[in-house]
Amino acid sequence: MAQNEPSNSNDGESLKSVFDSAMKLFDKVETGSEATNSDAVQMTVKTAIANFEKATNLVSMSGMFSKNEALEELPTETLQYLLLPALLGTLTLKLCNQPRKDIINVAEIYFKDFIQRCKDYGVTDVEIPQTASDDSNATRSQTEQAKIATMVLTREAKIKRYNALKELKDKLSTLSKSMESPNVDDQTKREYFTTLLLNYVNQVLDELNSIEQEKPILEYMSKHAGEIKPKHRERAPPLKPVIITRDAIQKAVYGAGYPSLHTMTIEEFYDKRVQEGTFPAASNIPHKTIQNTETDGDETEQIKKEQLVEDEDPEELARQRSMDEYKDDHRRGWGNRHNRS
User: Fold this and answer.
1) pTM for the predicted model, two decimal places
2) What's the rounded Cα separation, in Å, for the pair 254 and 208?
3) Region labeled Disordered — which residues (predicted)?
4) Residue 85, number of CB atoms within 10 A of its CB
5) For residue range 96-136, what is the model confidence (pLDDT) as tens digits?
């Protein structure tokens, strides 16, 4: 059975107080309007990560979770701590001024650990998505008919998942309002935390898919431009994941894979990372408009002439009078008498 929540850590803080303070910072980052790469937001992200890591260590020391238990055996208040890897992975992706490759590798470890733990407790039955290297051989060996069948199944899975997600979000919204009541019962709390876990399972699957799309982009950037390092900053220490240790350190076990449920074009993916402050924005290069140089020259010359007239330039005024007299003595078309009777 799961042990009781540790009441105190080494410095006297309870797991609940550490977790709650981290969640407030997490919500501040998620709902804030300030750019993710700003100094203020980055400080909040790092503080929240430190608090969640501390909470993770407290959970590990308490032996709160075990693979030998079922979800029903866990006390209601401990269910929220199953979210720790997902929360840490989400915040890790928001870090800036560190090698992006390290960031996505650590986030991937957190996300897969979260999915595996949810599978162990029966929260979900989805398989951990395979990486590109895992399924490359299988993809090459597929026949055309098999590929078509896979596309059909993937489309059906997308439709099914879309409907399920809509129902899940509606349910979570209703339960969130119920949780605001001071007299909320234990059954409602339990249903809320379980629904919240399922909601994060879907978010994590999307993030894992995005990471797989980002890897070849980072590989391309590394080969052609080298790793972009921040100016006038010392290299940050390499990131290391902090996960719940009891019965959580295990070899990665991959199933048949999970269909790719979310796709983006390269432009959409890059724009998303630019908005998050991860990738640098493309330079705004003005488009050159092809113009008729002869017309531009005539217009420029005409402007110069008008300016000279306005300034009462003697030479320009004399030239204008000579032209007027010439036009009076030589009507247009008079010189064109060839072949006329």
Assistant:
1) 0.63
2) 14
3) 289-341
4) 28
5) 989 999 999 999 999 999 999 999 999 988 888 766 555 55
In terms of residue numbers, what domain contains 180?
15-130+147-224
How far apart are alpha carbons 178 and 184 in whole angstroms?
7
- Let me know if residue 257 belongs to a domain: no
In a domain, 76, yes or no: yes
With contact defined as beta carbons under 8 Å apart, do 77 and 6 qualify?
no
Q: Which residue has the tokens 């799309």?
A: 213
Report the alpha-carbon distance of residue 18 to residue 81 in Å, rounded: 11
Q: What is the dihedral of CA 109, 112, 114, 119, to 10 degrees?
A: -150
Is residue 203 situated within a structural domain? yes
Q: Give a yes or no: residue 173 inside a domain.
A: yes
Cα angle, residue 121 at apex, residues 120 and 126 outer, rounded to 5°: 60
C-alpha distance from residue 12 to each of 7, 87, 120 (Å) = 8, 24, 32
Banded pLDDT at 152 (limits 50, 70, 90): low
pLDDT of 55 > 80? The answer is yes
Tell whether the model's pLDDT for residue 223 goes beyond 80: yes
Structural domain tally of the chain?
1
CA distance 95 to 4: 33
Query: Over the Cα atoms of the chain, what is R_g?
Result: 33
Q: What single string gives the DSSP state of each residue in 201-255? A: HHHHHHHHHHHHHHHHHHHHHHHHH-----TT-PPPPPP------TTT-------
d(CA 109, CA 59): 18
| Mean pLDDT in residue range 37-56 | 96
What's the CATH number where 218 sits?
Answer: 1.25.40.540
